Amino acid sequence: MTLDFVKMEGIGNDFLMLDDMDGRIEKKGYGELAKRLCDRRFGVGGDGLIVAVPSTSCDIGFRIFNSDGSEPEMCGNGMRCFAAFVKMRGFLNATRFTVETKAGVIVPELVKEFDEGVVHVCVDMGEPVLSPNEIPVNLDGEAIVNHPVAACGREFQITCVSMGNPHAVIVVDRLTGEEPVTFGPKLETLEIFPEKTNVEFVEIVSDSEVKMHVWERGAGETLACGTGACATAVACHLLGHTGREVTIHLKGGDLKLFWRESDNHILKTGPARVVFTGSVAV
Questions:
Q1: d(Cα 215, Cα 228) in Å, to the nearest integer?
Q2: pLDDT tens figures, 263-280
C-alpha cells in the first residue's frame, strides 16, 4: 500500500497528516504506522501521526499517535495543523468546524488563510480541568496548585491541569534549557500520575508573557506543545503570575492564549505550516 501524506508543523511540533476517511489505513494499525513513519532516521520523521477519520457526532474526526505508537487524547499544535489539513484537502468548506477527539469536541477556526504555506488558526480548546480525579493525579484536594513533589533528589512545586490530557506545570526562576531532558522522564512517570503526564517548565517574563519548555508524554522533549501552553496559561493565572491573556514563548515559536472568563474556555491562536507532501510505501 502507498500512502499519500502531508508533513506539517506548528511552531516546531511536526506531524504526518493522513486521510483515512474510507478506513483503509486503519487495517495497518495507526500505532505501528506512527512508530515506523515518525522515525527520524528510518522513516519520514515527526513528533506524531495525525489521521482524519469520519465522525458521527462532529463535522470530522481526529486521531493522533505519538512517535512511540501511543495514542494521546489531544494535541493543541496538532489540532491547528489538522484544521489546515482539512481545509487544504477540501474535506469541509467551512473555516470553523467541530472535531471529535478523545478529549471531547474541539472547535478550530482558520483566522488567516494560507500565505506562503502558513495558515493561522484559533482553536477553542474548551475548559481546563482542575479536579485531581479527572486529570488524573493521585493527590487530595479540589485542585493541585503549587503542590510539592520530590523527584531527582530535589523538590518541585507542581500545578496540575488537564486539557483532555494531563499536565504538570512547574514555574522556575530561570530556564536553563536542560530541565525537560534532565527532569522530564522521571516526573512523567511518577506514581501519582496513573496515566503519566506531560511536564512544562516555565519562566515568568511579565504579567502577559512567559517562556515554556516541555517534556511530552510519549514523545520526549519537543519544540512546542499546544495543550501544554493552555495548561501553562491556566497555572500561571492561578498562581497570580499572569492575567487571562498571555503570550507563551516556546522553543519553536509563540502562541497566544486567552482564558475567557465568560465561559471558562481557552482560546489558543498560532500558525500551522505545510513542510512538504509525499508518498510512502507501507
A1: 9
A2: 999 999 999 999 999 999
